[in-house]
Amino acid sequence: MIADEDQQVALEKKKVALVTGGSRGIGKAITERLAKDGFHVIINFRSNSTEAQATLDSVIENNGSAELAQFDIADREAVSKAMAAICERHADSLHTLVLCAGIRHDDLLIFMSPENWDKVLTTDLMSFYSVVKPFVRHLLLNRAGRIIVISSTSGESGLPGQVNYSAAKAGLIGATKALASECAKRNVLVNAVTPGFIDTDMLDPAKTKEMAARVPLGRVGHPHEVASVVSFLASNESSYITGQVIRVNGGIYM
Q1: Residue 135: which residues within 8 A CB-CB, separation 6 or more?
Q2: β-pairing verdict for 94-99 and 65-70
């Protein structure tokens, strides 16, 4: 057993990554990959403590380093408190922020309730301000870091039944490009990744075969394929890439 003081010293030598929605689906794959890459990963989750603990256990079992951070990214006050604590504890080690948390409430616009419009826009887009602002301040002070935004093919091409989701994800792409231009001179790189149909619990199993048939590669994607791109963007190998939208969609939108 390593002494607490030794553990703290070891932690201080690691770069720190925060992954919102990091306990399930694409977020879990990203968490596990960044931990494998040597990051200390802060795993944000909203309510499913069982899944969050399972993801943390998986990281630890594979000799990685991580911690849990429970807060709802749609709750600005909760985000403010959580981010203040994270930034205070890890100020000099913050390096990568992955915005992965998001929700969907699909419906044709003529049937869409105002509540489902507001929920999706608040969670998927408005949270960008609350989470990114305190984090990027430290990256700018440290003159290094990465912000990686998980948007969606829906935000590029638009999909029927997803006017709210498409609007939010398109907004994230615009925010990514604008922030990239603001931060580049201090070596803080900001990019977006747009997954297509990925095999997670957000994908309707009954429609998987139909969706796969629409993809030029003939299949849906896997979370680890998105995580690999995030891993690259968080690494030193991406040092001349900022303001870009990287598509992981099997060719469904080019």
Answers
A1: 18, 83, 86, 87, 94, 97, 147
A2: unpaired
Q: What is the pTM of this model?
A: 0.94
- The SS3 of residue 68 is strand
Of 129, 165, 240, 253, which is the active-site residue?
Answer: 165
Q: Residue 240 catalytic?
A: no
Ranges assigned E (strand) in the chain: 16-20, 40-45, 65-70, 94-99, 145-150, 188-195, 245-248
The 188-195 sheet, strands edge to edge: 65-70, 40-45, 16-20, 94-99, 145-150, 188-195, 245-248
Q: Which residues of the chain have pLDDT under 50?
A: 1-3
Burial of 240 (0-12, 13-18, 19+ CB in 10 A): exposed
Specify the length of the chain in residues.
254
Q: Record the tokens describing residue 211, joined without a space.
A: 């969706």
